[in-house]
Design goal:
- The chain is 70% helix and 0% strand.
- It contains nine helices and no strands.
- It has helices at residues 5-20, 28-43, 48-55, 62-65, 74-96, 103-119, 122-133, 138-150, 155-166.
């Protein structure tokens, strides 16, 4: 189990978001925006927790504010759901620690894929994928990739790398 200063800090931040749910002058939209920013930083942009918080919404009208049956208002329901999501996030951090940061790799893979699709002919792109996915040793794959790129005009590898480096989403950490 990963118990370090970072996990404790992330848990503290999430607990603050839970506590904010019960503040007297609670503003749902402001809470939601801040919480989404923090969850993305902790769990990454593709976290299911983010999409669940994004889907939370409440009816702010006179009928929902005065429910004659005495049941919970739409805002109270949103608060309960938000609290459950954030409590699950705390349990996840307790049991599993911080998520492995795959953002850079996943984003990088997308950037590289786009660069290849933009700069290779379809048949060359398919051939490249076959080389990458084949059940050969790393050395054999490296030799096949070297041959693949040597067979192309000199501009193609340069265009691919340029597309990667000039992509607005490209970051070096």
């Amino acid at each position: 189990m990963q118990t370090n200063i970072y996990v404790m800090k992330e848990k503290e931040i999430i607990q603050e978001r839970i506590d904010a749910l019960s503040q007297k002058n609670f503003k749902f939209d402001a809470w939601k925006t801040a919480t989404l920013i923090l969850l993305e930083r902790i769990f990454g942009p593709d976290s299911r927790k983010i999409s669940m918080i994004e889907k939370l919404d409440y009816e702010y009208n006179s009928w929902s504010l005065r429910d004659s049956k005495g049941s919970a208002s739409s805002l109270d329901t949103c608060r309960e759901q938000a609290k459950a999501i954030l409590e699950a996030a705390l349990l996840e951090l307790d049991g599993l620690g911080l998520p492995v940061k795959q953002k850079a790799f996943a984003g990088g893979s997308k950037i590289i894929k786009e660069a290849l699709e933009e700069n290779l002919r379809v048949k060359d792109y398919k051939r490249l994928l076959e080389i990458i996915k084949c059940e050969e040793t790393k050395e054999t794959k490296q030799n096949s990739l070297a041959s693949f790129f040597h067979e192309m005009s000199a501009e193609v590898p340069v265009e691919i790398l340029s597309s990667v480096f000039l992509n607005p989403s490209f970051e070096i950490e």
